[in-house]
Amino acid sequence: MKAIVQDSYGDTDVLRLDDVETPGIGPADVLVRVHAAGVDPGVWHLMTGRPYLVRALGFGLRGPKVRVRGRDVAGVVEAVGAEVTRFAVGDDVYGTCETGSFAELAVSREKRLAHKPVSLTFEQAATVPISGVTALQAVRDVVHMGAGQKLLVIGAGGGVGSFAVQIATSYGVEVTGVCSAGNADLVRSIGAVDVLDYAVDEIDSRGPVFDALIDTAGNRPLALLRRALTPTGVAGIVGGEAGSGAVFGGFERQLAAPLTSMFRAQKARPVTAKENSADLEDLTRLIDSGAVRPSVGRVYPLADAPQAIADNRAGHARGKAVVRVLPA
Ligand SMILES: NC(=O)c1ccc[n+]([C@@H]2O[C@H](COP(=O)([O-])OP(=O)(O)OC[C@H]3O[C@@H](n4cnc5c(N)ncnc54)[C@H](OP(=O)(O)O)[C@@H]3O)[C@@H](O)[C@H]2O)c1
Question: In CATH terms, is domain 131-270 a member of 3.40.50.300?
């Protein structure tokens, strides 16, 4: 099968479109014929092995253990392992995979897949798993947003941010989005009642008015995040690429957040997404009810996956980019 592979860590020039063996499946696995695959900053981290923390976390010290890039997947079940009960050959599915989704076939664990929302195309569905699950867990489990509260979403036009705006809005939360001027129309169109252009207004320019914030971009210091929050407000730290260091890649803020919150009413908490099918099914319900609509960015053919990764790294993501593997 055709796949985007790499043998060593590096920039996009280590990637090539090649013929590789079809991956085998274990008893709890599902083989998926990939129609579309999402592109997010995590793909760049696994391609480069940066920050070095990625290598220490088990993705491969000298080179990537998984040679095929891409994790978000939407496609059709081609085969199932002996213990799989929720899926059958021919089902439309979406989720995250183990073997790399920039490929014609990919292996996913049953516990990381759900049936594709009927209202979505494969391209739309491929944008959901990593970003949507992260946003859902941030809004629901980390900052615990409820109706009538005020939430600030930093990076509101990007993959995680655009889902966070919509999920919170569906809970009756009043959302303000932080983004560049170019993303302001998108962020308003998905539910934000107010938008801050970060080139003009810093995030504390409205005063300490937000019950919570979800931070996905900019790597602002925790002290600045606190200035936008009410005295009992909560900051959920998802990530951010700007100015991130080679060793921890901005993860320092997530490590520091609980320590700096110990003796304060204001809290800062890390968001560490746990991919699972129950949350994907919750997202399916939100999507099929019309409350959440994926915001698809640029669509690239499989051979152009390296360009998709480079474009995402260059910044200013508007929705989420997709690699189309099977022609529509
Ligand atoms: N903790 C976890 O479990 C987890 C899970 C998924 C992702 N992440 C991390 O979360 C981060 C966001 O991921 P993503 O997929 O949403 O990335 P993305 O799609 O690239 O979106 C980032 C967005 O931030 C905006 N932005 C850039 N600089 C900004 C600034 N200074 N202030 C405000 N907004 C700014 C960008 O566009 P504009 O500048 O045009 O507005 C873009 O829309 C990444 O670092 C990723 O690695 C963490």
Answer: no
